[in-house]
UniProtKB/TrEMBL annotation:
Protein's name according to its UniProt entry: Diaminobutyrate aminotransferase apoenzyme
Family stated for the protein in its record: Belongs to the class-III pyridoxal-phosphate-dependent aminotransferase family.
Organism of derivation: Marinobacterium sediminicola
Cofactor section: pyridoxal 5'-phosphate
Keyword Ribonucleoprotein belongs to the record: no
Entry annotated with the keyword Transferase: yes
Length: 420
C-alpha cells in the first residue's frame, strides 16, 4: 500500500477501509495480492449487480474488441448503441406501457442528476429544487446541492444554492405529515418559498441508510409535484437496475415520474454508463447538443449493458432476488433482535439490505472486522451508522451464506468487545 500512500491523493477513501491490493475478481469474490479471497457484499457501491467479470458480458466484450467495434463515439449512432436502445425499449419501457426518451450524458450518476436538474429548470423556468434529508445524488455542484450529507457539502467551497431539503418519509422523518406541511407552504403565496422546478428523490435511499419510501408517500409527492407544476425526478441510480428484485425500485407502485436517473448497474460489467428516461414533452425542451459529455457514447458499456438486459427478459433473476432478499432480511432481523437493547434495526428491499447499528463508530468497527474475516461491506446512513449489504444479484448461494455468517461473527465480536 506504500505507493498509494506516497503518491495518491489524500482523498482516498475505500483503499483506507480495505487496505489491500486487489488483483482479481469473479462474480461475488475479489482476491488480493496475497491470494486472500473476499466475499463482496459491496459490489462497487451498487455497480456490479451482475457480478465481477460476468461471463456473458466478458464474452460479448471480447467479441466486440476483436471485431474492432466502435469503443468511443460521443453520441454518434453505432450498431451497439442501437442494440442497447432497442433492448432497453423492448425489455424495460414497452412492457410498462411507458413513453420516455433516453438521454445519455457523461457516464456517472452525478452526470445524470445534473442533466435532470438542468432540464427541470429549463422546462419550468424556475430555479428552486426540493430534495430530501439523507438524499445522495452525487458530488458535482448541482447534484451536491441536492445531496444532504454535510461532510460532502462542506467540501463544495461555494454556497450550494437553489435547493432546499425537507424530511424524507423514513427513518426519523415525519411521514405524510411533512408532505402536508410542505403542500401548505407551497400553496401559501406568502410563505416566502419559491415554487419548485422539481422534487428530486430516491424512492429507496441507498447511501442515506437504506430508507424506503412507501407507495402512499411517493404518490402524494407525485401529486404535490403535479399540483405545483414541478417535475418529479426519481434518482434510481443505486436502487435501480434490478437491485430490489424488480427493474426499478418503485416498480408496481403506479408512479409516473417525469425523469428517472439511472447509472451504476446499467453498464453491466462495471463499464460506466448513465442515462435519463425523460418524458417526451420535457425532452422537447433540449436543443441539439446543448448538454454534452465526451464519454456519453461508451461502446463497452452498451455491449455489456445490452447483455445485462437479458436478465430482465424473464423473471428468474428478479424472483430469486426477491426471495433471497427476504431470507437475508430474516437473518438481519434475527441479528437485530439479539441487540434490541442497543437499538439495532434491519431494513431493506430485495438485495439491498441493511443493519442499522445506531453508532457510526460501531458500523466502522463491524466493517473492519468483516474485512479481516474476508467480507467487504460498506457503512452508510447518518453518521455512517448503517451496514449496507448489496452483493451481486448473481452471488452463489454458498457465498451468500458464508458472507452472512462472517457478518454475524463480526457483529458479535464487536458487541462483545464493547461489553468487555
Ligand atoms: C442514488 C445515487 N445518486 C447519484 C449517485 C452519484 O453517482 P456517481 O458516483 O456515479 O456520480 C449515487 C452514488 O452513489 C447514488 O447512490
Amino acid at each position: 500500500m506504500e505507493l498509494f500512500e506516497r503518491w495518491e491523493s489524500e482523498i482516498r477513501g475505500y483503499s483506507r477501509a480495505y487496505p489491500t491490493v486487489f488483483t482479481k475478481a469473479s462474480n461475488a469474490r475479489q482476491f488480493d495480492e496475497q491470494g486472500r479471497s473476499y466475499i463482496d457484499f459491496f459490489a462497487g457501491a451498487g455497480v456490479l449487480n451482475f457480478g465481477h467479470n460476468n461471463p456473458r458480458m466478458k464474452e460479448a466484450l471480447i467479441r466486440f474488441i476483436e471485431a474492432d467495434g466502435v469503443a468511443h463515439s460521443l453520441d454518434m449512432a453505432t450498431d451497439v448503441k442501437r442494440e442497447f436502445i432497442r433492448a432497453f425499449v423492448d425489455t424495460i419501457i414497452k412492457p410498462r406501457n411507458w413513453d420516455y426518451r433516453l438521454q445519455f450524458m457523461g457516464p456517472t450518476g452525478t452526470n445524470a442528476v445534473e442533466a435532470a436538474l438542468k432540464l427541470a429548470r429549463r422546462v419550468t423556468g424556475r430555479s428552486h429544487v426540493i430534495a430530501f434529508s439523507q438524499g445522495f445524488h452525487g458530488m458535482t455542484l448541482g447534484s451536491l446541492a441536492c445531496t444532504a450529507n454535510q461532510y460532502f457539502r462542506n467540501a463544495a467551497g461555494v454556497p450550494l444554492n437553489h435547493v432546499s431539503h425537507v424530511p424524507f418519509e423514513t427513518p426519523n422523518g415525519c411521514g405524510m405529515g411533512c408532505l402536508n406541511t410542505l403542500r401548505e407552504t407551497l400553496e401559501n403565496s406568502s410563505s416566502g418559498v419559491d415554487a419548485p422546478a422539481a422534487f428530486i428523490v430516491e424512492p429507496l435511499q441507498a447511501e442515506g441508510g437504506v430508507n424506503i419510501a412507501s407507495r402512499e408517500w411517493l404518490l402524494q409527492l407525485q401529486q404535490l409535484a403535479r399540483d405545483t407544476g414541478a417535475l418529479l425526478i426519481f434518482d434510481d441510480i443505486q436502487a435501480g437496475c434490478g437491485r430490489t428484485g424488480q427493474y426499478f425500485s418503485f416498480d408496481g407502485m403506479g408512479l409516473d415520474p417525469d425523469i428517472i436517473c439511472l447509472a451504476k448497474g446499467i453498464g453491466g460489467y462495471g463499464t460506466p454508463l448513465a442515462m435519463n428516461l425523460v418524458k417526451p414533452e420535457h425532452d422537447a425542451h433540449w436543443q441539439p447538443g446543448e448538454h454534452t459529455g465526451t464519454f456519453r457514447g461508451q461502446g463497452f458499456s452498451f455491449v455489456a449493458g445490452r447483455e445485462a438486459l437479458r436478465y430482465f427478459e424473464d423473471d428468474a433473476l428478479m424472483r430469486q432476488t426477491r426471495e433471497r432478499g427476504e431470507s437475508v432480511h430474516a437473518r438481519l432481523k434475527a441479528l437485530a433482535e439479539t441487540y434490541t437493547a442497543a437499538g439495532f434495526e434491519a431494513r431493506g428491499k430485495g438485495m439491498m439490505q441493511a443493519l442499522d447499528v445506531v453508532e457510526g463508530t460501531r458500523a466502522k468497527a463491524i466493517a473492519r472486522e468483516c474485512f479481516e474475516r474476508g467480507l467487504l461491506v460498506g457503512p452508510c446512513g447518518v453518521g455512517g451508522r448503517v451496514v449496507k449489504l448489496i452483493p451481486p444479484l448473481t452471488i452463489p448461494d454458498d457465498d451468500l451464506e458464508q458472507g452472512l455468517r462472517l457478518l454475524e461473527d463480526a457483529v458479535h465480536h464487536v458487541m462483545e468487545a464493547e461489553d468487555a
